[in-house]
Amino acid sequence: MGFLRKICKIFIRLLGYDVLRKKYIKFKGWGLISNTYPPWIGNSKNKTSLGYKNAENKLIRKLKKKKFYLSQFSYKIKNFEGNLDIIKDLRYRHYYVYYSSLLAFSNTSSKNVVECGVCDGLTIFFCISLFSKNKNSKFYLYDSWSAMRAKELIKKNEKKNIGRYDNLDVKNTKNNLIEFKDKIIYNKGFIPDIFSKANNPKNISWLHIDLNSSMPTLESLKFFYPKLEENGVILFDDYGGVGYEATRNVVENFFRNKKINFLHLPTGRAIVIKK
Predict the structure, then answer these.
(1) Cα separations (Å) of 168 from 22, 40, 84, 189, 250?
(2) Which of 32, 41, 120, 147 is geometrically suited to a Cys-Cys bond with 166, CB 3.0 to 4.6 A?
(3) Residues 142, 124: contact at Cβ < 8 Å?
């Protein structure tokens, strides 16, 4: 009985600690838990926090008015509150999108943006919210807007993605981003095949790669890195993702002998700054 009593006391103590710890959690989402204040809570006056919060508030207003549709998450969204939960869960992800965009916007001249893997336009919305302030900015978006194919998924652990995103429709993305329509060039097709047919930029400030596959990631780097300006920024979505080790290896090998600054983020994303 004495041994069981000790076990029970330890269990109760641990349970109490866990409950107490949950009380102080300030953010939970996207595989990250933190008990420190995130950038969107409090009275932060810095440019990054204010800009991010303004962009998110604008997005939330659009979702509430049904002017932005998240087809990617339609299987689990039943109402506006469901949309809001998704946005809250992705806050650190989108904060890093905005921050990396601000880095590029502040330190490059072309103000051209490329995104490879666009989906509904949710990620690029945070970048456009910043870059569209420049009247010369152009946004070059590349996506098949159709189911992923075996041809691009060459690694064994990538095969699970065959058929994913079959619900995507470029019309939905265009509707979501309609206020920026004069600045956006949509290039619909599979990477790398689309590069030879697309309207491509000569120089770019910011590149986002979110392709869930290693071969198209490498081909995107080979095609766009020479176009990236000095101090330009690349944001990788899948770099640290479990199951995407092939993408991580591709990125590591590509930059092995290049002059860059590299930051692996706790959300699994990575930021590269070209030097």
Answers:
(1) 37, 30, 20, 13, 26
(2) 147
(3) no
Run of H or E including 187:
strand 184-188
Task: Identify which of 241, 238, 233, 232 has the alpha carbon closest to the alpha carbon of residue 217.
Answer: 238
Peptide bond into 201 cis (omega under 30): no
User: Which CATH architecture fits 24-274?
Assistant: 3-Layer(aba) Sandwich (3.40)
Residues of the chain with pLDDT under 50: 12, 17, 19-20
DSSP states of 49-103 as a string? HHHHHHHHHHHHHHHHTT-S--GGGTTT--SHHHHHHHHHHTHHHHHHHHHHHHH
Give residue for tokens 């152009």: 138
Q: What are residue 116's DSSP bridge partners?
A: 142, 209
What span, in angstroms and rounded, lies between the C-alpha atoms of 38 and 31?
Answer: 15
pTM equals: 0.90
| Residue whose C-alpha is closest to residue 246's, from 215, 220, 222 | 215
Please give the share of the chain, as a percent, with pLDDT higher than 70: 90
C-alpha distances in angstroms, 182 versus 129, 179, 228, 240?
14, 8, 23, 35
Distances (CA, A) of 171 to 101, 120, 153, 175: 25, 9, 25, 6
Give 188-239 pLDDT, tens digit per residue: 999 999 999 999 999 999 999 999 999 999 999 999 999 999 999 999 999 9
pLDDT at 98: 98
